[in-house]
Amino acid sequence: MMENFTKYEKARILGARALQVAMNAPLLIKIKEQDLEEINFDALKIAEVELNSGILPISIQKPFPKLKEELKESKKTKISDKNKEEAEIKEEEEIANAGEIMELANPEEEREENNWIS
User: Which CATH architecture best describes the domain 2-53?
Assistant: First the structure.
């Protein structure tokens, strides 16, 4: 039963039940006097024993968000390999025509540029 609770829910439940036990509420599970002495009559430990045994009459309601609209998957257009290749070739041509063609760096020009910066 405890595996269904988040750590925050568990903390809230244990805290509330420990407060009840500390205020002399009757224990929901029979614990031997020797076991109570071992845990030093600690209300939090007693609440934990009760929670772990599954004896606590606790139910948690977790509200789910309301969906206003169902999510619709967009239709994916399938492109064949041939169309992909044609599109890539066309794109490469556009880049080559629109862009500047880069040349290999000339070491002499680089020295001139570096001298200008210095």
Answer: Alpha-Beta Complex (3.90)
